[in-house]
Amino acid sequence: MSDREVARHLERIQAIIADGALAHDVESYISDSWRRCVAEHRLNPSDCREPEVLESALLRERRQRHERLLSLASDEMGSLYQQVAGSGHVVILTDADGCVLDYVGDMALERQTGSAGLLPGALWNERVQGTNGMGTCLMTGKPVTVHHDEHFLVRNTVLTCSAAPIYDPEGDLMAVLDVSSTASVAQQHALSLVGMSAQLIENRVFHCAYRDQYLLHFHSRPEFLNTLGEGVLSFDPAGRVLGATRSALFQLGVDARVTLVGQDIAEVFDMRLADLIDEAARLHHGQPIPLRGVVDGRRFFASLKCPARSGSHTGHNVRAAKIRDAGASELDLEQLNFGDPRMAQAIRQAKKLIDRDVSLLLSGPTGVGKGLFAKALHGYSDRADKPFVTVNCAAIPETLIESELFGYKAGAFTGANRQGSRGKIVLANGGTLFLDEIGDMPLPLQARLLRVLEEREVVPLGADTAIRVDLNIISATHRDLKTLVQCGEFREDLYYRLRGQALILPPLRQRTDKRQLIEYILKLEQAEDRVRLEPEAMHLLLAYAWPGNIRELRNTLRTLIALCEDERISAADLADEFHQETGADDPQCADTGVSEAQNPLASAERAVLLRELESMRWNVAKVARNFRVSRNTLYRKMRRYGIKPPR
Ligand SMILES: Nc1ncnc2c1ncn2[C@@H]1O[C@H](COP(=O)(O)OP(=O)(O)OP(=O)(O)O)[C@@H](O)[C@H]1O
Asked: How much is the pTM?
């Protein structure tokens, strides 16, 4: 800001604070916040002190405290970032004090925003940073957007922030999800996207908190079960309500959680718990249970999820009552197929082999749903009520993979946890170990993994006795493992050990059930089933090459829904790449991401990446560390931009 602009900024704030009549110039949450900044926080708009940042030990301690939230939010943050990426944004998660716990950054923007204080450990509550997206969202408990000169402190006016609250299962504000960018970048739909992502994270936290309890998913219309709009109630084996999601309160027309918590489920719906359980077992899998609200007799449709341990207690088959999680994170195997013959074959084979001690290798390009498939397969298997443990071989730094997988004994090395660690293989004992991005497993560890698979025992680091394990192994890769074997980058013996049977998931552009999938995901991404695709828009979506597959499809539809103003998505609403010759059937075109190359921001990112990779002599792990992204993400970007290491 120039001196003149600064002076004008100060004058405007003073005028609006002094004269309530002028306050219509800005939203009331902005003028209220400015008042707090002056009267309560005693801040000066031109204060240019460095932002407060916690020391690394304190930040580590906070991150540990919020470990579960961080792991539940990480996918959603990545996904949100992909939707706003390319236009210079960072996605940030803060705790209830406004401390930045995690962020996914736009490489080109990182330096600029870093200087604005958008760093892990930085405090963004209003007391320290004045009016800003995260701090003002924490104060109001509501989603807010704060545009550049709506920030109180001059030094923050370079930013535009959209932030939404995340509430814990007790209804207390636990975190804020925020998208920030430099002010010149338009962010019209960011608030809707942030709001939806925050809601998804909140739902995940709820499910995680009550995973050992009964969960009743319900909506007044059956097709909205398993979408963001469904309500979820958790209750104990006596039928007493323990918790309710925000959508549940909305669906039931209840203002506060306390009204519901402690009530018997039969006081909320016209059915006792025992009858609900019988009904879930009696109905055909996937068929919703019809219910009525006790207070107003409104009709609802529901599905019941029983705690894993309840199988013997209630005497009914838990698998029959298993339902899908909102956001498709726990789809049933059959729900992954909408008629495509290759998907149908993969599902058929997987079902036959999963309980036969055959290792399955899922292959297919990024975003086709390998992770979802593995999880659904575990849910189908005899081990469904045992752990499903994912190891992302590309996302764990090489130095940590060994302890992460095999665990370590107490005091095995300096810096190790005092109690030792069990390692993911032991954690998966009895259940399924999912080795994602197995093609990125470092060679020395491949030998150790092979030994575990052959001998079915693990020796944790620093220990001398082995622990016996019994598990199903599913691995996945987007890389051609056979070629890696030929280049000496992957052990042949491990390849054959993991590939008991290879299951190939087709790229989206080749699926024959694309239309059904698009329609399904359009519903999945809406709280209300209002938004429709016009035929021409559907035609363009069907013709597009989808280099990012279902992940890209979900992100695209989510963005279109958020932007949609009249409940119809027309061809004109689609971005330029959908109107170009897509070469949908030309795999070459899809794999190199031709449309990316025409986007100036994408080509700038490509150039930055290439320069960094060259200067680091193509050490992908190092470059990923420098950019604070996972190797997985970096590989994805390289593939998207057609960047290949020199031979
Ligand atoms: N059938 C489906 N219905 C709804 N969403 C789906 C479906 N299949 C995949 N998705 C969504 O697409 C995204 C990508 O899925 P997933 O992570 O399983 O793909 P992947 O092939 O493992 O990708 P990568 O190789 O990049 O890890 C996720 O958000 C997932 O929820």
From this structure: 0.53
